[in-house]
Give the backbone structure.
Amino acid sequence: MEYRELYNGVKMPMLGYGVFQIPDYEEAKKSVLTALQTGYRLIDTAQAYGNEKAVGDAIKESGIAREEIFITTKVWVKDFTYEKALKAVEDSLEKLGTDYIDLMLLHQPIGDYYSAWRALEKLYKDGKLKAIGMANCYPHVIADFCETVEIKPMVNQVELHPFFQQENSLATMKEYGIVPEAWGPFDEGLRNFFTDPTLTEIGKKYNKTAAQVALRWNIQRGVVVIPKSVHKDRMEQNFDVFDFTLSKEDMDKIATMDIGHSEIVNHFDPAFVKFIHSYKF
Ligand SMILES: NC(=O)c1ccc[n+]([C@@H]2O[C@H](COP(=O)([O-])OP(=O)(O)OC[C@H]3O[C@@H](n4cnc5c(N)ncnc54)[C@H](OP(=O)(O)O)[C@@H]3O)[C@@H](O)[C@H]2O)c1
C-alpha cells in the first residue's frame, strides 16, 4: 500500500473502500469484511449512509487491530451546529465501536458548516479525531474556508475521475496543504465507464481494466481513491493497482477526457441545495 501523509503527520492509505449505497446491515457488514480480507485498510462511511454500525461490527469481527485500519466518516448537514456536531461525532464513535476516528469530514459545505467545524476542531484537539476535513468544496469555497478557520482541513473529498478532473481544485488544495480524495472514481459507472475505449485501450498495454487505469491515474496525480463495489472479484480488481505505472503519454491521453463538470450532482442548483437541507435518515 502507498500512503499520503497529511500535514499533521497522519498517514492515509492511497486506496480505500467506500460504502455509499449499501444501506442493508448484513450486506454492508459482509462487504466490509470481504474488503478487509482483500487488504483494504481504509473504510469510507458516513452518518448519512446508515451503515456505520455495520462497518464497526465488520472491523471488530475481522480481528484486525484497530490501529491498522483508517476509518473515515462524515457529519451530515442537519447536525451543523456546534452542539449537534459534538453529539453527532459521539454517535459515530458509538456506532463504529471505537474511541477515535481517523478522519472526520463535514459532508457538504452547505448550512452552518463553520459552527460544525468548530466542534470538529475541539474534538481534534481532544484527540478523538486524528484528522478533520471537508467534502464537496470547490476551489473558491476551500480557499474561503482556509482563510477563515483556525485549523485548516487536512483532506477535501470531492468527485474526481477522468470525466471530471478538477485540476484547478487540486492546485488550490496543494496551496493549502490539503490532500485530495476522490469520491465516485468511476463516475458511478456513467458514460459506459467500464468499457470506455480510451481507458480500455490504455489498459491493454498493462494488462489492466478500465477501472484499474482510472484508479491508477488518480493515484499518480496524488489523489486518494475510495472505489465502491459489493462484488469480491471487483474489490480485488480495484485493489490491484500498485504493480504498474502509467506513462506520461497515457496520463496525457486521459487528461483529454475531461468534460469539466459533474454529471452526478450539481452544487450550483438551488433545488439540490434545498434537497441537501431536507435530507433525513
Ligand atoms: N463525500 C461525498 O459526497 C461522496 C459522494 C459519493 C460517494 N462518496 C464515497 O465515495 C465512494 C465511491 O463512490 P461511489 O460509490 O459513488 O461510486 P464509484 O466508486 O465511482 O462507482 C461505484 C459503482 O461502480 C461499480 N463497480 C465498482 N468496481 C467495478 C469494476 N471493477 N468493474 C465494474 N463495475 C464496478 C459498482 O457496482 P457493484 O457494487 O455492483 O460492483 C458501483 O455501481 C462511495 O462509496 C463513498 O464512500 C462520497
Observations:
- The first strand starts at residue 3 and ends at 5.
- Residues 20 and 49 are 6 Å apart (CA to CA).
- The first helix runs from residue 25 to 38.
